[in-house]
Specification:
This protein is an alpha+beta fold. It is about 30% helix and about 20% strand. It has a five-stranded mixed barrel. It has a two-stranded antiparallel sheet with strand order 2-3.
Amino acid sequence: MYPSRALCASSQAYLHARSAGSAKSVTSGSPFLPEIFILFRLATSAVVAAALSGCYVERASDATLDGPPAAINAEAAADIDLLRTPLPSDRAGNITVVVEIPAGTNDKWEVNKTTGRLELEQQDGRPRVVAFLPYPVNYGFTPRTLMSREAGGDGDPLDVILLGPALPRGTVTSARLVGVLRMSDGGEADDKLIAVSPDGPFARVQSLDDMRAMHPGALELVADWFRAYKGPVIVQVLEYADRAAALRILDSATAAFTP
């Protein structure tokens, strides 16, 4: 059952109102928001995000998206080496995104760097579940990329935050690259590309400036979540940067990848 149109509208109005009243932005020189304030914002926003997730599905019922590169549904992707097979981008400026963690979930799935299959991450012999509010976005990676340790990265594929309708785990889809969230996790570069689904509520978004103008508060909500989900200080959210910066990071990560 999806939320009513009235709930969708009121949830979106909340984000607009909250953003208009916020004087803080995510920049490299900004101090961390007080932890309790972050949790308050996130607790309130979690309800909104859950409502909006349903609104997204109501507006775009297909679980996969068409367009270059060819979309692959979750069932078909189960037998594919997701790390090496799909192309990372196309000439139209779209990138390929493999969804590891659907919006609204907490289970920590990741790609196995040997097999290219998705698997549930293990921590201390147990399946890892993020002990925080659910992911407010689809989270995954773009194939044939590497954030190399030699360059200060974490040794994993380049992460992608996909804004749009919630998609099933394992979905391979094409998305529009609009920017990057520069981050550090435990002292390692942990940048995350920001991409939008070409349908749903963000279909007209071409840049981070568009995102701020059309959907005030959304980028702040995402930054707050990633800043807080592992606890104080562990993750440092540095800044949002534009599409040109995102392309430079993508090119570097693509060059570092060895099949």
